[in-house]
Amino acid sequence: MSFTNSYLASVYEKVATRDADQPEFLQAVKEVLETIEPVVNERPDLVNAGVIDRMVEPERVIVFRVSWVDDAGKVQVNRGFRVQFNSAIGPYKGGLRFHPSVNLSIMKFLGFEQCFKNSLTGLPMGGGKGGSDFDPKGKSDGEVMRFCQSFMTELEKHIGQFTDVPAGDIGVGAREVGYLFGQYKRLRNEYSGVMTGKGIPYGGSLARKQATGYGVCYYMNEMLKDNGLTFEGKTAVISGSGNVAIYCAEKATTYGAKVVAMSDSSGYVYDANGINLDVIKQIKEVERARISEYAKRVDGAVFTPGCNGIWTVKCDLAMPCATQNEINAESAQALVDNGCIAVAEGANMPSTPDAISIFQSNKLLFGPAKAANAGGVATSGLEMTQNSIRLSWSFDEVDEKLHGIMVNIYAACANAAKAYGREGDLVAGANIAGFIKIAESMMAQGVAY
Ligand code: NDP
Ligand code: 2IT
């Protein structure tokens, strides 16, 4: 697809020139601008107020040095980022990613997507993202702690419970959030809900750990239901074996599907009997080891090296839960050829634009990331609420609210797509529904001079 609206074409051209070195950011912007066209065509007021020109430029980008001392006593230096993208509907909210691939393009694509995702949750959260090129793999707990403390020593100046509330993402789980939160508290002499994904004893929310993965399945379930289908008896392939993938697999299994393959960045395991999640949790959550271990421990399971192979495994349902652009056109075609009927994205932007076209032109049900994986940040929003009211809800209360939010998000996407002549196109529906709320809020709040 490309632009027929010349205003949107010119906005995109400007971003493409200004941020020519940021391919992931441009990919995310292009998809949103292409799909909000039917709204923009009938809203000259938004165009006149420069709402879209403003939306594609982050409100603030902070880049900083993170120096820390490794176990050998050597000084190490990493780069830290926080992209405060849009605060129209609430404090900046979004995760921190620690991975060697982190750069400004990846931070900006994630921050941009987060704005629309957070808007879809119906909760008052703006969009932001941050992280570092620090690689937690192979580091000792002490090294991770010292890195997190140094990272927060700078980040602390820019965040706060009413300003910007970070959480986890790739490479940032409960351990890292704990160290980061501890350092914030130490520096400020203040306990507040400045981070989400905290441990349960010190203000974390029950069900936050499960929320993104469960939410992907709640969204998938709505998509299936709307088309007279269920999870029952289906075969599922889930990439990744981190936080999102594990709890996506858990809920898919509860719903009656058989998860036959999972992966990490070194390769994938296939288990025709259905993946034993206790073994995966032991390897990944407890030992922080490689997924190839699974094949050594479970009879009949096979490990295959390489990242793309997992998409050649025959399945009915595919849920990519690892990283961006992990499904290219070739992998998408393999899924289609093997009879896959539905894809729900747990990772952020896991399908390339070509892959999405292949899914859509072959009439697969397709749930885009910013809708399907919004359960994590939605439950972060619920954690913020619990911190503010100084109460903790039970697991079931939070899970029920999460389920309700995912049902609403699916309905909002489906309804927006229909209202703007794109029935069944949940990519357009998610972008349009997310966009309208932010755009109206920016209009109402005026332009700052
Ligand atoms: P984790 O760090 O817990 O797990 C990441 C998983 O993806 C690991 O299995 C990892 O393998 C794999 N992976 C990471 N990078 C790559 C890569 N470049 N190539 C292949 N595999 C890779 O992260 P999460 O589960 O939290 O995040 C997974 C995805 O979900 C990300 O896209 C994230 O942005 C998104 N997301 C996360 C949310 C959350 O609440 N945590 C909420 C919404 C979206 P390995 O161990 O080998 O690196
Ligand atoms: O991409 C995401 O939505 C997340 N990593 C979760 C963000 C959050 O603030 O919980």
Salient structural properties:
single chain, 449 residues, alpha/beta, Rossmann fold, 3 domains, 7-stranded mixed sheet, 18 helices, 49% helix, 16% strand, globular, binds NADPH dihydro-nicotinamide-adenine-dinucleotide phosphate, binds (2Z)-2-iminopentanedioic acid
Characterise the protein shown here.
The chain is of the alpha/beta class and 449 residues long. It folds into three domains: 6-54, no CATH class; 60-190, Leucine Dehydrogenase, chain A, domain 1 (Rossmann fold); 209-367, 3-Layer(aba) Sandwich (Rossmann fold), CATH 3.40.50.720. It has helices at residues 6-18, 23-35, 37-41, 44-48, 51-55, 104-121, 141-155, 174-188, 208-226, 243-254, 277-286, 292-297, 329-337, 353-361, 369-372, 375-389, 395-419, 426-445, and strands at 60-69, 75-86, 92-98, 126-132, 164-167, 235-239, 258-264, 267-270, 302-305, 317-320, 342-344, 365-367. Strands 9-8-7-6-10-11-12 form a seven-stranded mixed sheet, sandwiched between helices. Helix 6 (104-121) packs across helix 18, helix 7 (141-155) packs across helix 8 and helix 13 runs parallel beside helix 14. The longest helix has 25 residues, at 395-419. The radius of gyration is 21 Å and the shape is globular. The structure holds NADPH dihydro-nicotinamide-adenine-dinucleotide phosphate and (2Z)-2-iminopentanedioic acid.
